[in-house]
Structure formats: C-alpha cells, structure tokens
Design brief:
The protein is α/β, with parallel strands linked by helices. About 30% of the residues lie in helices and about 25% in strands. It contains 7 helices and 11 strands. The strands form 2 sheets. Strands 9-8-7-10-6-1-4-5-11 form a 9-stranded mixed sheet, sandwiched between helices. Strands 2-3 form a two-stranded antiparallel ribbon. Strand 8 and strand 9 form a beta hairpin. Helix 3 packs across helix 4. The longest helix has 17 residues.
C-alpha cells in the first residue's frame, strides 16, 4: 500500500504579486510557501503511515526550487519526493496541470490498495479543480472536502463537509480524496527526519520521461493545452481606513448621511 500526495508550492501573496509581460504570475521572483490545504493532506497520509506502515510519496509540479519544499516534507516523514518539472509544462491551467500530474501518477504506478490525497484547493487559484480532475483522468472514485478518514479492509469511510452539514460515504481503493483544514493539524519536523531526508534523492520527471504517456500531448499541456487563460494578474489596491462615528445614534445618523451624500453613495 502506498499513498501519493499531490502538493503545490504557491506564492506568498501577502506581498506584491509579480507579473510577467504575458500576464502570467512571475513565481520565480516571489517568496513561496507550501499550499496550506496540502499540508493537511500530507498529515493525513502520515497518520495512515503511522497505523499501516504504508509508503508515502509526495508529488509536486513546478520549477527546481520546489525541491526544497519536498525535502521539508521528507523531514516530516514522507518517504519519497517526486518533482515534475519542464519548460513544456509552464503556463498550464488546471486542465493541463491535472493531465500532467495524472501522467506522473501513472508513471509511479497505482495498485489496488493505493490512495491519492490532495488539498481541497490551492491558495493561489482557489479553484478546487485539480484534485477532482486528476481522479477523472485516472478513472478513480473521488471523495472531496474530507474531514475524517477511516480505513478498514480496503474500504475508506470518510466524512465530507457540506454547506449545511456532513455526509458519511464509503469508497474502495484505489481512490482520490481532497482534504480540508478541519481534518487535522499538520505535525512538525523531527530530528530523525532531518537525518534521514537525504537518504533518497528527489526523483525528477521531465517532459522526456513523460512524453510517451497517452495523457501528454503538445495540445494538452502548457499554455497551448490550457483552455482557460488568465487575463490579468495584479495586487488589489489598498483600501482606505474606515471612519468610525462615535456617540449616540441619534446624534451620529445626520453626520453619517451627510458623509454618504458627500461621497455620492446616496
């Protein structure tokens, strides 16, 4: 049994968003963090490893600096890191990204008792599309917005968060789950992890390694294979500080109406 976790290195958008001339985000010039929801998926994988002794493989797609993120996950307890990287993959939207990741997972191999975990959504795009798209392209059942996981005899029993409550649902492995922050609290790195993290090198899957996969074609990856394109990326303007009117409402209401009228709001 192995658990494959898809993780993404996302820009720390707390600062200014850097944009290339073609309108895409200049990720190389921005500080990065591990996508928060993906950390919950990693922790879920490590908890299953603690119980069942399974192998945990973290998979990410991005430039070579993402290796540092994969090493950090290995320090936490992940057994193997796989980086999908190549210029041919640049500019991929969620559709093209899921094509590439699904091809890489096929390269790793999916067995009867395997589980694929993803975060609910990426911090930078907030689409929540990649995980379900990977499942569709691998023809696997999927359980999304998972807030509790139980595994017994190859059957997963999961609690899914809904807008108005919860749903308890079962699925046989192999399958894909998307995890939310309510599922767990990610663990810290360990001294043993620091000592062991370099025993196995990060595996790099480039275009040459994946090009023979049926999912990898020139018109299904990169900007050319992306049916959606970002029109413009920018940092939202800083809003002015709010104005507080203190005192008795009977006295402040006339002042409030006068302020709104002066700003042509009313």
């Amino acid at each position: 049994m192995k658990i494959i976790v898809y993780v993404k290195q996302v820009p720390d958008t707390a600062g200014k968003v850097a944009v290339k001339p073609d309108g895409t985000m200049d990720r190389a010039s921005m500080p990065t963090i591990i996508n928060p929801d993906d950390m919950n998926a990693v922790e879920a994988a490590l908890q299953l490893k603690d119980v069942y002794g399974c192998r945990v493989i973290a998979v990410s797609m991005g430039p070579f600096p993402a290796m540092d993120m994969l090493k950090e996950l290995k320090v936490m307890g992940v057994d193997e890191g796989v980086l999908i990287s190549g210029r041919e993959f640049g500019g991929s939207d969620t559709f093209a990204t899921s094509q590439i990741i699904a091809a890489a997972i096929r390269e790793i191999g999916i067995e009867e008792d395997d589980i694929i975990l993803c975060g609910r959504q990426a911090f930078d795009g907030d689409t929540a599309q990649v995980g379900p798209q990977i499942a569709e392209k691998l023809h696997l059942p999927q359980l999304t917005y998972v807030t509790d996981i139980r595994l017994e005899n190859g059957v997963l029993t999961c609690k899914r968060m809904l807008e108005d409550g919860y749903m308890v649902i079962q699925a046989k492995t192999p399958c894909l789950l998307t995890c939310i922050k309510e599922l767990n609290t990610p663990r810290y790195m360990t001294v043993k992890g620091i000592l062991d993290c370099d025993k196995e090198p990060i595996v790099v899957m480039d275009y040459e390694r994946l090009k023979d996969n049926p999912l990898i074609e020139s018109d299904t990856i990169g900007l050319k294979g992306s049916p959606t394109n970002v029109f413009r990326s920018f940092s939202p303007p800083v809003k002015d500080a709010g104005q507080m009117l203190e005192g008795d409402p009977k006295d402040t209401i006339p002042s409030l109406f006068a302020t709104l009228a002066a700003k042509h709001i009313i």
